[in-house]
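Second attempt. The first submission of SDR family oxidoreductase had a stray character pasted in from the spreadsheet, which I only caught after the job came back as garbage. Lesson logged: always re-copy from the clean sequence file. Corrected sequence (214 aa) follows.
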Amino acid sequence: MEKILVAGATGTTGRHIINLLKNDQYFEPVAMIRKESQRSDFETEGIKTVMGDLTEDISNVTEGIDKVIFAAGSGGKAVDAVDRKGAMGLTDAAKKHKIKKFVMLSSLGADNPQDDGELKEYLQAKRDADEYLANSGITYAIVRPGALNNETPTGKIFLEKSLSSRDGEIPRGDVAQVLVRSLHDDVANREVFEILNGEHIIADALTKVQVENA
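This time the job returned cleanly.
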């Protein structure tokens, strides 16, 4: 099984990701935590952990890891340190240890941060992190969802390389499923795509970024 480092494992979306991975036949989650007190939350479920703070040196957190999901977020409190530099630091660590794939949770609007005054700083940080990953040489998938909510996952989304409308939301559980599916070698290699809640079963929607003969 491939070991998957989950940055942001203690967050709401991160917990969805961990729960999917721990029951997956192909992947084994490794939760990245900032505090020793968080370790037992995962290890009681048999989930491995690694200490790492995105605002500090994380150059060794990817040692022994096969693939990465970045689902961390500052919540607006340390945008540059976490959403920008933290993501870049994890990209550097992934490159150092020759990670096979890096799946980035980004955001709708990251392609044009100037369009959103209220979220401009956040979206610019996401854009910078996305571009840094795309230029790193690592195989990547960059997933840009609309506003996240805590509604019950539907298992259905709307996916385009670039959505014509940026209005809409999507349950965190559905985003988590897209991120986990994007870990596979035959899905979304060096792809950027956008998702909202929709009517297409996730597996079917992802055929738009399916890799032939992977």
